[in-house]
Every structure is written in structure tokens, then in C-alpha cells.
Amino acid sequence: MGVISGGVLLATSPWFSVFSEQKNTVGSLARIGVIGPGSRGQFLMSFLTKNPKVEIVAVCDVYQPSIDSALKIAPKAKVYNDYRRLLEDKKIDAVVIATPLDKHYQIAMDAFDAGKHVFCEKSIAYSLEETYKIYQKYLTSNRVFFVGQQRLFDPRYIHAVEKVHSGEFGEINGIRTFWHRNNDWRRPVPSGKLDEQINWRLYKAHSKGIMTELACHQLQIGTWAMRQIPDKVMGHGAITYWKEKREVYDNVSCIFMFDNGVKMNYDSVLSNKFYGLEEQILCSKGTVEPEKNKYYFEEIPPAPAFLQLINDVENAMFGSMPFAGTSWVPETANKNTGHYLLDKKPEGDGTSLLLEAFAEAIITQKQPELIAEEGYYATALSLLGHQAMEEERMLDFPDMYKLNYLNHKSIEVAI
Fold first, then answer.
1. How many Å apart are CA 407 and CA 228, to the nearest integer?
2. The CATH number fitting domain 6-152+348-369, selected from 3.40.47.10, 3.30.565.10, 3.40.50.720, 3.30.1330.60
3. Which residues on adjacent β-strands are paired with residue 178?
4. Is the distance from CB of 26 to CB of 34 less than 8 angstroms?
5. Residues of the chain with CATH 3.40.50.720
């Protein structure tokens, strides 16, 4: 694979080592069952069916329209309406779990017990305790465990983090992440009785809303770039605009604090899409915006002489205004057009490579380094941020849920 080259990439993204035996696995087959082939599950299936090393042998759902749509993608798949029967099938090597969040825990635990390799959509589970127990089950299972954090395989993000880790932009001094939309997240339902089943993301019994559905992607970028896990979080959430049949917040703000003083901000508003989504890594010598495929240095080349003259006149004029103070100078961020991380923006978001990696890991039965831990902490931080908003107080990352990873060291506690 062209994207995999050199020790620098593997130092930044060690999980790419899963492709090291790719040529040797030609002709091998990973037999996968999909549990929860709704919209997200079908999206994953669309990539899996393009891989000659994968066969989707089974699908399982309690909602018949989802089964009907899934069979159009994998017409030979065996159909189940009880995931436990699917797990009994000895011909199935692995499962993809794309159910509502509150169902992840039991299905994942049962899948490991059944000897299956597991791909679980993010977030991993509904609570910190469930997330930790799934991770511990994986450690003792001798099975492969992937989480749906596709940015780990997105060439833009990989190159961005490579450049950050190389020191090209200096020290990280702040991280801003946001994901803004303008819709209520509601899907049409054939019957009001099915609203909670289909629109499960809007109900507290099944979801933690923005944090577990969106923030988990972006918080992982911050910890990946920092190579640290934050120790504290505070935040606030509310329902301010989309108030009909909704129990989860439609706008959130969180601040995650690292022990070196750096802060990672997360914001999401579901009633304004102007700024869209982005992760901004703010360093002493530059800024990286991986979603936009761009980076910017703090010091930009001087403007042509005529423009420089205009700037000097404006600076002198504004500098004399009493409301601005004598040291104020107009900022130049809008004049810094930056540089592209990659010459051509990738067509996908890393999902295809993520699923290819999962298939390779199934076939070789080798867990790629650190990918489970990255997924674990992305979920844990999302859940902790949600808890801080619910309790309206600053929270420390609980010692009992820390792993031996980066700056965190686990403490063995029975739960």
C-alpha cells in the first residue's frame, strides 16, 4: 500500500503494521456477520463487499426494512433476528456491531465469549464501566478488537499528526474541535410506535447524543496528536432549539485539561452549520486543520510593497484609537491561505482502509498495536465529558478506568 512507507508513519500510526502481510493473505477469506445493518451498518457493508478477502455470511436485525436493504448489498447472507443465534454459527469468524449504543456491551461481550473477532462501532459502550469491561474481555479473549474510529486511517489525519509529531509546528498549546450541523437528527418513521427504535440517538435510554455520536471522533484526534490523555473535564449541555421529542442535548461545550496545562475544547451546535466540523491543532509555530487538508505557519511571507504600505497605514491608524489600546494590531489570519497537507484530498474518510485492516487482522489473527486503546479512550473521554455536563461539575479521569497507555497508568481495581 502506497500510504504505508517508512518508520515515521509507523511511529505515528503503529496500527498500520496490520498490512505488513497483505500480500501473503491473498486468497484468504474473512467471514463476517453484521449485527445491526441499519444505515451505518449498510454503509460499512458497502465497503466490505468490495474486498475480495471478505464474505458477509450473515446479517441480524429486529427491523425488517433494514434486513431487506442489507440483502440488496449481500444477497447470500443468512438472516437472523436474534444475534445470539448468529454467534452460534461456527462458520462466522467475526462480527460487525452497528446497533444502537445501549446494545453494544452485551453483544460485544457475548461475541468475545463465542470466540468471534469484533468490530464495534463507536462509541464502544453506554457507560465507562461497560467500556472498561469490554476492553478487559478483549485482553483475555485472544481475539481481534477494532473500534469505528476511521480517522486513524484517513491519510489527511495521518499526515497531519506525522507533521505535528515531527516538531515542524513547535509545541502544541491548544486544541479546538467542533462539529456543527443544522438538523434535528430525526429520521422519518412509518409509525409513531417505532420512533424510539429508529431515532434512538435522541433518547437517553439508548444514547448520550452528541458526545457519543460525534465527539468521540474528534477527541481522539486531540489525544493522538498530544500523545497524552487529559486528566480533567468540565462542560455544559442544553436543549435550546430542537425541543420536540428529544431528550439529549442539541448543543454542548466541553473543556478537557491535560496535566501540562494544554486544553482541548469541544463544541457542537445542531442549529447552525456555517462552520461545519474541524479539529484545529494550535502550535507555537503553526496550526493544522486536518479536515480541511491544510496547515498554516505563524510567520507568513511579507506582503508586496504596496500592500505592506497599506497595512502600515492601517496599523498606525488603528493603533492610535483609544478603544484599541496602543499595542493592538489587526490580526492577519484571514490573509494566511496556508498549505495543503496532501496535493489531492482523499475521496473517503478512512473507513475503507479501516475495514481492510480489520479483514487483514481477522485473517492473520494479529491485533494491530494501540488501535484498541485509541478507541477505548475516545469512548471514555466522550462519556466523561457527557457526565461532566450532566453533573455540572469538573471531573477527574477515574483511576480505575485508566489503561497503561501514554501518560496514564492503570490501577488494578475490581469492578
1. 6
2. 3.40.50.720
3. 267, 278
4. no
5. 6-152+348-369
Q: For strands 94-97 and 30-35, give the pairing.
A: parallel
pTM across the whole model? 0.91
Residues of the chain with CATH 3.30.360.10: 154-347+384-401
- The angle at the Cα of 353, spanning 137 to 35, to the nearest 5 degrees, equals 50
* CATH code for the domain defined by 154-347+384-401: 3.30.360.10
Upstream peptide bond of 123 is cis (omega within 30 degrees of 0): yes
Instruction: For CA atoms 117, 399, 206, 251, give the dihedral sign.
Output: negative
C-alpha to C-alpha distance for 43 and 20, rounded to whole angstroms: 26
**Sheet with strand 172-179: strands edge to edge:** 339-340, 294-297, 286-289, 277-283, 172-179, 263-269, 251-257, 232-238, 395-396
Q: One digit per residue, pLDDT tens: the chain, 415 residues? A: 444 445 667 889 999 999 999 999 999 999 999 999 999 999 999 999 999 999 999 999 999 999 999 999 999 999 999 999 999 999 999 999 999 999 999 999 999 999 999 999 999 999 999 999 999 999 999 999 999 999 999 999 999 999 999 999 999 999 999 999 999 999 999 988 999 999 999 999 999 999 999 999 999 999 999 999 999 999 999 999 999 889 999 999 999 999 999 999 999 999 999 999 999 999 999 999 999 999 999 987 665 665 566 666 656 655 544 444 445 555 655 678 999 999 988 888 899 999 999 999 999 999 999 999 999 999 999 999 999 999 999 999 999 999 999 999 765 555 5
| Cα(92)–Cα(203) distance, integer angstroms | 33
Task: Tally the residues of the chain.
Answer: 415
